[in-house]
Amino acid sequence: MLQEYDYRHEDSTLLSNIDLYKIFNNYRVNKYIIGILLALKKTHLSEYKVLEAGCGNGDKTRMFTELRVKPKNCYGIDINEKAISLCQELSPSSMNFQVGSVLDMPYENKQFDIVLCSGLFSAVGGEPNIKKTSEEISRVMADDGVMFVIDINENFHNIYGTNKAVLDKNFTHFNSQNGELESLLKKEFKNVHHMHIFSADSYRVGEQAADVSKLSFIDSELDKGFEGSAYSMWVFNKR
Ligand SMILES: C[S@@+](CC[C@H](N)C(=O)[O-])C[C@H]1O[C@@H](n2cnc3c(N)ncnc32)[C@H](O)[C@@H]1O
Q1: Number of the ligand 1 atom closest to the C-alpha atom of 52
Q2: What contacts 22, CB < 8 A, 6 or more positions away?
């Protein structure tokens, strides 16, 4: 069954704390991605073709245009029609969004230099689908491409421990300490980096979202290597 996600958070004129955290979250994600691309010497961003697999409302797909990826070279696919309608509404028309499944993608072989999977592997429906998705991504990714995976890690239960609405969704999460995700993807991909990344939820106080006035403090803590977040970013190259 299709999960229901709260895709729409960009249509309000008044930015809530949650909106501000989401914007900050994406700013941090951008920062991590730039750092990794520099370290991997993959900086021809204006030439690259990028795919976000399971793109939701496309906010992270659009983020790549801030890194000089041309809108016409940005692709997003999601199984949820509502999500893709939002992508089309919120994005430049030259960006490419399509309803479809990551298990069988409508793209030619080896065409993407960067693939982003944010929240996809936890949502795709368990181990067989994770493996099938991995094969499909490997098929469409260039041999020297890079895949960024952002997903929930071993801290998930500590942070969401009391939040029944979240726990009921029964998301798969990946222990970043014992190579759980790496081993599921190992046929096609080798892991080249892992880091804990920002999630607003890590700074919740009980049921309350954390205070947005602490964003600059959080930013500096993360730069010092804070490891308490429920989200990780794994970076993979093709085998
Ligand atoms: C947690 S949301 C993440 C959305 C977006 N990537 C983000 O970071 O905000 C997971 C997304 O994966 C999509 N999804 C799940 N299974 C899929 C499949 N088989 N093919 C394509 N998209 C899928 C869902 O529809 C949903 O939009």
Answers
A1: 6
A2: 9, 59, 200
Cβ–Cβ < 8 Å for 154, 119? no
Closest Cα to atom 4, ligand 1: which residue? 56
Is 65 part of a structural domain of the chain? Answer: no
User: Is residue 231 in a domain?
Assistant: yes
Q: Rounded distance, CA 31 to CA 142, Å?
A: 23
Residue 27 lies in a domain: yes
Cα(102) to centroid of ligand 1, in Å? 9
Each residue's pLDDT tens digit in the chain (239 positions)?
456 676 765 556 677 777 787 888 888 899 999 999 999 999 999 999 999 999 999 999 999 999 999 999 999 999 999 999 999 999 999 999 999 999 999 999 999 999 999 999 999 999 999 999 999 999 999 999 999 999 999 888 777 766 777 777 777 899 999 999 999 999 999 999 999 887 666 665 555 666 778 888 888 888 888 777 888 999 999 99
Give me the domain span that covers residue 172: 17-42+102-111+120-238
Q: Domain count of the chain? A: 1
Q: Whose Cα sits closest to atom 18 in ligand 1?
A: 101
**pTM exceeds cut of 0.85:** yes
Distance 213 CA to ligand 1 centre (A): 30
Question: Does ligand 1 have an atom closer than 6 angstroms to the CB of 98?
Answer: no
217 CA to centre of ligand 1 in angstroms: 31
Domain with residue 167: its CATH number is 3.40.50
Could you give the C-alpha distances from 26 to 22, 54, 81, 82, in angstroms and in order?
A: 6, 16, 23, 21
Rounded to the nearest whole angstrom, what is the distance from the C-alpha of residue 117 to the centroid of ligand 1? 8
